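Good morning,

Attaching, inline, the backbone tokens for the sequence recovery test we're adding to the shared suite. The designed sequence is right after.
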């Protein structure tokens, strides 16, 4: 049975998903934490772009990051890094992905293990979702207009139809929206 591949990004009302720490403020509470925990519980491997891998490796692999609850998840997990510039000898339980990322994720889906999470960055999530490798994309929309910043779906993305597979809202005003590509 194929493994599930999911992605989850934080989003502003105007569609910005870059640097959510700049607009998330006090909009991450108990329900948000419980949803994230439930989504990550079956995950045994992650796919991550090079830039985010470098940022996260520097922080989560540090003493401060290791003391954070997310560090318990991200530090020991197997990471598949999408990069054409990093060498093959990666640390932090990481392997560099060579070849087509969509093909790589589709091969992972057929292997043994739990679910796979595409944790970012923006281009990585976009290309794998639009390429059909991500089964479900969840967006947590925060009650904020972020102003400037990169959007997950910018003007380069053609008309793409989606099916809503789950939704909800939290007492803090966040809206949780989970989508999959609409079947033709």
């Amino acid at each position: 049975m194929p493994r599930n591949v999911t992605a989850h990004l934080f989003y502003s009302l105007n569609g910005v998903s870059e640097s959510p720490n700049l607009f998330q403020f006090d909009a991450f509470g108990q329900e948000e934490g419980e949803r994230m925990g439930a989504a990550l519980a079956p995950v045994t491997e992650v796919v991550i772009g090079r830039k985010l891998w470098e940022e996260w490796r520097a922080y989560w692999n540090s003493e401060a990051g290791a003391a954070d609850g997310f560090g318990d998840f991200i530090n020991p997990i197997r990471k598949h890094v999408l990069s054409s510039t990093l060498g093959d000898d990666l640390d932090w339980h990481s392997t560099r992905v060579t070849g087509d990322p969509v093909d790589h994720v589709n091969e992972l889906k057929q292997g043994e293990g739990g679910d796979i999470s595409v944790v970012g960055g923006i281009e990585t999530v976009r290309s794998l979702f639009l390429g059909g490798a991500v089964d479900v994309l969840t967006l947590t929309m925060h009650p904020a207009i972020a102003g400037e910043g990169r959007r997950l779906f910018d003007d380069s993305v053609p008309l793409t139809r989606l099916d809503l597979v789950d939704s909800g809202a939290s007492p803090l005003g966040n809206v949780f929206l989970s989508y999959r590509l609409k079947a033709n």
